[in-house]
Write a structure and sequence with these properties.
heterotrimer, A mainly alpha, B mainly alpha, C alpha+beta, B: mainly alpha, C: alpha+beta, 2 domains, three-stranded mixed sheet, two-stranded antiparallel sheet, globular
Chain lengths: 403, 163, 253
């Protein structure tokens, strides 16, 4: 079964140039912001000794998690035998690599000493889940890169399936590892939960599929290659299921905490009292980021409309960013409980809710990471045959095509 | 960079040696060199021969750094604070030179060799007490010229004294 | 136990040390010298035979007093930029008030020098580490400034350096972009061993209080071990099982 030809998107157009210049400009702004943060010190950001991770981490973790999920389509082909998805596998893998590099760039440039990247790569503490993640992230880029290469090189195509399998296993580990960055934090009540690992896996499926749909729709429009409504419908359905799974894990997490009296405070903070975290949770993550997209995706008339799918995917991305904001910032803002039963005060904000408002530098750095990811995808589809000439599923229903 | 912050040092040492050889062969005044000569420390001799220090000071400091930080070994022989204390340079205004001052002991060579070090982002760049400072050595072109017995450049104060 | 005891004890130990030197000089086995000396030789590596710690007697800690904080700041050159959210604090005073009974007390909070430190576990480069003698430190040469240790510390004991510093003290190197916390005055400990008094404890005594006692938890004869044995003390967040090196006593529970 020949899935059809792949070709570069071209020729160069004014739109392409404008896009590249715009993305490059945002990327440069991000680099400038990072440089300023490094030379001035982090006091020019909203981050402080109470909220030590801020907006850069929200975006970086989002991109890293989404990167893993963006590989879904390729995995459907190579792991789950849905050969119908084979035409989209290349784009899926390229997007995954791009998102990961964007996220990693943000993470690295936010370090207090980004000039010591070489130290991070040469000194390892293998008890640290962070150190493991450094290996998982770089390994993911390598494996996904080999995967794309094997898919594109006719001689190696028969090996692309095992590599795809390896990539699938690797990315599950990667997202579990990312979730465990928080899950392993015994000190803070808002983290310290095993469910963080599967929650992040579910988040990666939802955010990654959303990112892929957005990319696919954008590429289809930019290349004037019409998108088969069947692809859209299937991806939309898949994405809606992932959104439900995320909600399920979030509910399990909060309900478990709610049951333990000692954690009543943190649940109350995240879901009722915490300003702005409770509002962000209910209005941003749950309503706009989950329920509205579900309505869009499950209304039969809308679910085949590219516009509705695009809006739903964008809302899921925004909901995902909100969710990570609530997890990362909200989780830190809730004060550490050193003396249960006591009101605590100090000159170091003990017993107080952490205050955080991100500055322009942080948003610019975050935007720079996104721009880098978008730039990588844009340039790659321009120079390599990544996108199929006909954006449709390969012949035969995916289920019957399975061996 | 910080695991081995001084990688350019060896190349610098080689350059310095070659230049010094060329100069002395050319019959220039023996004490004048076109490459920076870092200030002498106090006392009779450094903790290691000059040749050894020139090539290996970064290794000594790096080794001692790990020994001190992780194992609490605080011998004075290769102590970083020891270098700073002994090689402090007093400027004309009586102040001890800081790291961003071209006369600072470390800066003398490191700026010439373009080897960036980040030691002084954390460490004190001069002794805590304003102890008697090391002798200065010629820094500027005019000082070099005078040291070599040549007339100074017109814009330079002649009252300026060399140690 | 009177507050003067630690110093009396130190004087006694100093005498014994002197005795040891004399004995050692008079051809006694070198082992005896080492055994009695309070301070290790400069070329001697720290060992697990000792475990340094603090005992904090909260009944001696006055609510209005922050001498320990000032002493620490002065010792390590911690000068604030009048930006409370980002200024470093290695030790801070907590004022506690019970929610129902209204009972109030006060205590200093600082790095607890855990035996199983979460900051060390999470540090990707190994910059956060625990010395053989139990002191938890940051090797600022290999700290990349990721702040994961600050996320992991249950005591909020760590600060990130948010700006360029100048004029640091020779014995307390610290700089922008790295994380720092209480070092248990490691420079004093390495110099004086059991005779060391961390700056916070020294300031506390100078203020006329005796709330902080430093010593070797492993040495059954040390003041700190003796008092822990006879008077008892508790760990903050003992539920985490971190086996902290800083213990608090006479805390209302």
């Amino acid at each position: 079964m020949r899935p059809g030809a792949f070709s570069v998107i071209g020729p160069r157009s004014a739109g392409f140039r404008i896009l590249v210049v715009a993305l490059g400009g945002v990327l440069l702004a991000g680099l400038w912001a990072a440089h300023t943060m490094e030379s001035e010190g982090h006091h020019i950001t909203g981050m402080n000794n109470q909220i030590v991770w801020g907006i850069p981490h929200v975006f970086a973790v989002f991109l890293i998690v989404a990167a893993s999920g963006a590989l879904n389509v390729a995995s459907l082909n190579s792991v789950f035998g849905r050969v119908a998805y084979q035409p989209l596998a290349r784009l899926s893998a390229i997007l995954a690599i791009a998102l990961l590099l964007g996220g990693l760039t943000i993470l690295v440039l936010d370090l207090g000493r980004p000039d010591r990247l070489i130290v991070a790569m040469t000194y390892y503490n293998f008890r640290s889940i962070f150190a493991w993640n450094i290996i998982l992230y770089t390994g993911f880029v390598v494996i996904a890169g080999i995967y794309v290469w094997f898919m594109m090189e006719r001689r190696f195509q028969r090996y692309s399936k095992p590599v795809g399998f390896a990539a699938f296993a690797w990315r599950l580990t990667l997202t579990s590892g990312t979730g465990s960055i928080f899950g392993f934090l015994i000190a803070r009540e808002a983290y310290d939960a095993a469910v963080m690992a599967p929650l992040f896996v579910a988040m990666s499926f939802a955010f990654g599929t959303a990112a892929f749909l957005i990319t696919l729709l954008a590429v289809a429009r930019a290349s004037a290659r019409p998108l088969d409504p069947d692809i859209l419908a299937r991806q939309a359905r898949l994405m809606s299921i992932f959104v439900v799974v995320v909600l399920y894990f979030v509910a399990a997490f909060h309900l478990t905490n709610l049951y333990a009296a000692e954690h009543g405070g943190v649940v109350r903070f995240l879901l009722v009292d915490g300003d702005p975290y409770a509002l962000l949770f209910w209005a941003g993550q749950v309503t706009l980021g989950s329920l509205v997209p579900l309505v869009l995706l499950w209304t039969p008339r809308l679910s085949r409309s590219p516009a509705a799918c695009f809006v739903a995917a964008c809302l899921i991305v925004l909901g995902g960013l909100t969710q990570l904001y609530v997890i990362i910032i909200g989780g830190q803002a809730y004060p550490l409980m050193l003396f249960p039963g006591y009101e605590v005060s100090s000159t170091f904000f003990d017993g107080e809710t952490g205050r955080y408002s991100a500055t322009l530098n942080e948003y610019l750095l975050a935007a720079g990471g996104i721009a880098l990811a978008a730039l990588i995808v844009t340039l790659t589809v321009r120079v390599l045959p990544i996108v199929p000439e006909r954006l449709r599923l390969a012949a035969g229903d995916s289920v019957t095509a399975r061996t | 960079m910080n695991g081995h912050p001084f990688t350019g040092g060896r190349r610098f040492a080689a350059t310095a040696l070659v230049l010094a050889a060329v100069l002395s062969a050319g019959g220039a005044a023996a004490e004048v060199s076109l490459v920076p000569v870092p200030a002498r420390g106090r006392g009779d001799a450094c903790v290691e021969p000059t040749e050894v220090m020139r090539r290996n000071h970064m290794e000594f400091i790096l080794h001692q750094r790990d020994e001190t930080v992780h194992r609490g070994i605080r011998t004075s022989r290769h102590s970083f604070v020891g270098c700073i204390d002994c090689h402090a340079v007093k400027r004309d205004d009586g102040q001890l030179a800081r790291f961003d001052d071209p006369e600072h002991f470390c800066t003398r060579c490191h700026s010439f060799a373009a080897v960036r070090i980040d030691c002084f982002e954390c460490h004190a760049d001069r002794p805590a007490n304003q102890a008697p400072a090391a002798e200065r050595s010629p820094t500027t072109l005019s000082q070099l010229a005078r040291a070599a017995g040549l007339p100074g450049l017109p814009s330079v104060r002649h009252a300026e004294q060399l140690p | 136990m009177t507050a003067a005891t630690p110093f009396a004890d130190r004087a006694r130990r100093r005498f014994l040390k002197g005795l040891g030197v004399v004995l050692g000089a008079s051809a006694a086995p070198g082992a005896l010298l080492v055994e009695l000396a309070a301070a290790k030789a400069p070329d001697e590596a720290v060992s697990g035979a000792r475990r340094w710690g603090l005992l904090i007697d909260t009944s001696q800690c006055a609510e209005s007093c922050d001498a320990c904080v000032r002493g620490c700041n002065e010792e390590h050159g911690l000068v604030g930029k009048d930006r409370p959210a980002t200024d470093a604090q290695w030790i801070r005073k907590l004022n506690l008030r019970h929610r129902t009974t209204g009972h109030a007390h006060s205590l200093p909070m600082l790095c607890q020098h855990c035996d199983a430190p979460p900051c060390v576990d999470v540090c990707p480069t190994g910059a956060s580490f625990k010395r053989a003698d139990g002191i938890v430190l940051v090797d600022k040469h290999i700290c990349i400034g990721c702040r994961y240790c600050m996320m992991a510390c249950p005591y909020k004991a760590r600060s990130f350096i948010h700006e360029t510093l100048r004029d640091q003290l020779a014995h307390a190197p610290r700089g922008k972009g790295t994380v720092e916390s209480c070092t248990l005055c490691v420079h004093r400990v390495d110099r004086s061993g059991q005779d060391a008094v961390p700056a916070c404890a020294e300031a506390c005594v100078e203020e006329g209080h005796h709330a902080i006692v430093f010593g070797d938890l492993n040495d059954a004869t040390s003041v700190i071990a003796t008092r822990l044995r006879s008077e008892g003390a508790r760990e903050i967040r003992a539920d985490l099982g971190l086996n902290t090196g800083v213990r608090y006593q006479r805390m209302p529970s």
